[in-house]
Amino acid sequence: MNIRFIQTDELKGEKFAFRKLTCADIPDASGCQSILFNGFIFGFCSKGNINLRINNQEYQANHNELFTMLPKHTLTLYNPTDNVEIDLLLITFELTHQLPVIPNLELLKKAGNQPCIRLSTEKREEIVNLYTIIQHYTSEDNLYQSIRNTLICSLILIITSQFDILSKTDIAPQTRQDKLSREFFKLLFQYARYGKDAGSYADKLCISAKYLSAIIKRASGYPVQDWINEATLAEAKRYLRTTTLTVEEIAGKLHFTNASSFIRFFKRHTTNTPLEYRKQ
Hints:
- The protein is of the alpha+beta class.
- It is built from 9 helices and 10 strands.
- The chain has helices at residues 121-134, 142-169, 176-190, 198-205, 209-220, 224-242, 247-253, 259-270, 274-279; strands at 3-6, 16-22, 34-37, 39-47, 50-54, 57-61, 65-69, 74-78, 85-92, 116-118.
- A hairpin with a 2-residue loop joins strand 5 (50-54) and strand 6 (57-61).
């Protein structure tokens, strides 16, 4: 499979990006390319329809439907109608830790089973309007960034509310593993400072680290440590960008044994040291 990994630095220093796609931008099935982005992708099909392949599962996004792709999933768009128009919003994992309100991102796990949802006229207009307004706030001015983050948060809240509606109409009973998975992601997104290993979260859930690893692997397709590393990295970047804490103090808050181990972790995942990242 030909997969292109979208790097965060391709977003030109931002933690989000818009992409507008038409039929001319999307090859036919024989020439299609999968993309892998370590963040959330929200797509709105404003015209026409298109086929999707998410982690080798086939779907179709039709006119006025929203589709969602979770971090570390592969997405392939192909066989568009001639009039198709797709608005994509890419949001990095890091940005979710900087929003003024933490959305219930665990609800988006339902997108793994039903990534395409049809929107009501009211919700469609709200999302289209927010897409348009957000694109006006691209300046690096601090006030503009605050406004933009608040608008993005509103957009995510609207989207997650649609999956909340789906969850309330889903009559399938929740298993204990489903509940534990939900609680893990709640802890991960809201309290990344709990620790940098599976044992820290397993203790909070009163289960073994081995059992937690099996649950998250089954639910998301990726090891639990991958998710923890991403959350730890996002929290580290937030401290470096928004506080004057020293590297040693940040290392302590993130439960590293010393500053050296934190620096090694940060550089392994970003290629920069914490201080180099702070100066960028």
